[in-house]
Amino acid sequence: KLALQKELGLKVDEKCFMIGIVSRLTDQKGFDLIAYVLEEILSLDAIQMVVLGTGEERYENMFRYFDWKYNDKISANIYYSDELSHKIYASSDAFLMPSLFEPCGLSQLMSLRYGTLPIVRETGGLKDTVEPYNEYEGTGTGFTFANYNAHEMMHSIRYAEQVYYDKRLEWNKMVERA
Q1: What is the Cα–Cα distance from 57 to 100, expressed in whole angstroms?
Q2: pLDDT tens column, 40-81
Q3: Minimal CA–CA distance to 158: which of 14, 13, 22, 17?
C-alpha cells in the first residue's frame, strides 16, 4: 500500500482507507452513481481512491478532474495496465463495484482472492459471490447495497470505512474469510 501510494503520488499513510476501482468506465459499471457523490466522499471522508480504466469520456474526465482537485486523495489512471491492476487489488482495503447489472463479474472475485473487501450492488454475480457483512453474527466477505441509488452506495462505503477504522479486528476477520 505504501509503495503504491508513493508510486501514484498519494499521501503516504498506511492507516488511510484506500478504495480501488479497476473497470471499464461505463454506465453499466455504476459510474453514474459514483459521479453523483464523489465530490462529497472526497471532501468529507478520510479515504483515498485509486482508479484504473478507460471508457466513456465523461467518466474519464470526471476522474481526471478529481485527481487534479484532490491529488493527494485520488489517483486517476486512465489507461489499462495489468501490472497496475494487480497492485491496486493487492494494496487497496476495499474494492468498489456498484454495477447496474453484472451477469458474472470477475473483479469482485479477484478482490476477494487478494483480501480486498468488495463494496458491491446486489445484482447478478455480485450478489451470488459477496456475502454482506453482518456485525451481529460476525459473518460476511464484503459490503453490499440493494437499490441502484447513489446515497445507498455512499452509505455502504461509509459503513465499510467505519468498520475499517473502528472495528479493525472484525475487518481483519472478514479479510480472512474473503
Answers
A1: 19
A2: 999 988 999 999 999 999 999 999 999 999 999 999 999 999
A3: 17
Q: What is the distance between the alpha carbons of residues 71 and 10, in angstroms, rounded to a whole number?
A: 7
Contact 98, 136 (CB under 8 A): no
Reduce the DSSP state of residue 1 to 3 states and report it.
Answer: coil
Query: Do the Cβ atoms of 38 and 110 come closer than 8 Å?
Result: no
Residue type, 140: G
H/E element, 5: helix 2-8
What Cα–Cα distance (Å) separates residue 35 from each residue in 55, 61, 137? Answer: 14, 11, 33
Q: Are strands 94-97 and 143-145 parallel, antiparallel or unpaired?
A: unpaired
What is the total residue count of the chain?
178
The three three-digit cell numbers of residue 159, written as one number: 459503513
Distance between CA atoms of residues 82 and 61, nearest Å: 22
Strands 47-52 vs 94-97: parallel, antiparallel or unpaired = unpaired
Alpha helical stretches, state H, 9-149: 31-44, 57-69, 82-91, 107-114, 124-129
Looking at the DSSP assignment, which residues form a beta bridge with residue 77? 52
The per-residue pLDDT for range 129-167, each reduced to its tens digit, is 999 999 999 999 999 999 999 999 999 999 999 999 999
